[in-house]
Amino acid sequence: MAKHKAVYCHFSFRRPKGKDYSLFATALYADKEGKVLVAANTRAYAMWKNHQHVTAIQAYEHALYCIWEWQYKLKEHGVTHVLLVTDNSTLAGWIEDPKKNKNYTAYMNRANEQYKVGGKKEIYLSIGICEVRDYEKSRKFCVEEKVSNKISVSKNTNSNISGGVKGSNQKNKLKIDEYKSIDDIISEDKPEGMLKDKTMNDINKYIID
């Protein structure tokens, strides 16, 4: 029987008061308790719609984008499953069944479209979801000081969350089980999930076998 190895993907959003964009944070942990950080990234994008439920779905899409972005390194180190972690029971229900509320099905389809089988950013890892928790652990990253892209949005912008201008100065970690330093991580060929920005510029210090 194939060995399964999971990481836990926490995600959240915050709408800064008086701003026409929202912050989206995703944090990956190697353990259920959320103590061993694997990677984290925060981006700012125009909201699909200024509505709490829609922005929560957009945060879910950002989580999928991050999983796609990181999946090659995760696969390289034996990860087979990513388990989503949220404290939003409504969103969890829609993730399990995107057709559960027809008023939001189109937004769920938009979130899932490019990551499904055959999509432009197909995710090859198995995605699941944990039971809803009282709290999740990406919220501490959901602050403007940790935003890794350039904030350039308009109230009338209806951009895909995975677009936008790259340009990170944020250092993140990729840690799975043990510590081992290597020197050539950044120069490796692009795989599925291209890591083409600099959001993992500390990866050579923290990559794990």
- Separation, N- and C-terminal Cα atoms: 21 Å
Secondary structural class: alpha/beta
The chain-level mean pLDDT equals 78
Content of β-strand: 15-25%
Q: Helix fraction?
A: 10-25%
The biggest beta sheet is recorded as:
5 strands, mixed
Low-confidence stretches: 155-209
| Order of secondary-structure elements | EEEHEHHEH
Give the C-alpha Rg.
16 Å
Give the oligomeric state of the chains in this entry, treating copies of one chain as homo and distinct chains as hetero.
single chain
What count of domains describes the coordinates?
1
Principal-axis shape = globular
Helices, by number, come to 4
How many β strands by DSSP? 5
Strand arrangement within the widest β-sheet reads 3-2-1-4-5
Describe the structure.
It is a single chain. With 209 residues, the protein is α/β, with parallel strands linked by helices. It has one domain (6-206). The chain contains four helices and five strands. The chain has helices spanning 52-76, 89-96, 105-112, 203-206, and strands spanning 6-14, 21-29, 37-46, 81-85, 126-129. It is globular and about 45 Å long. The relative contact order is 0.22.
Which key terms come to mind for this protein?
alpha/beta, 5-stranded mixed β-sheet, 4 helices, disordered C terminus
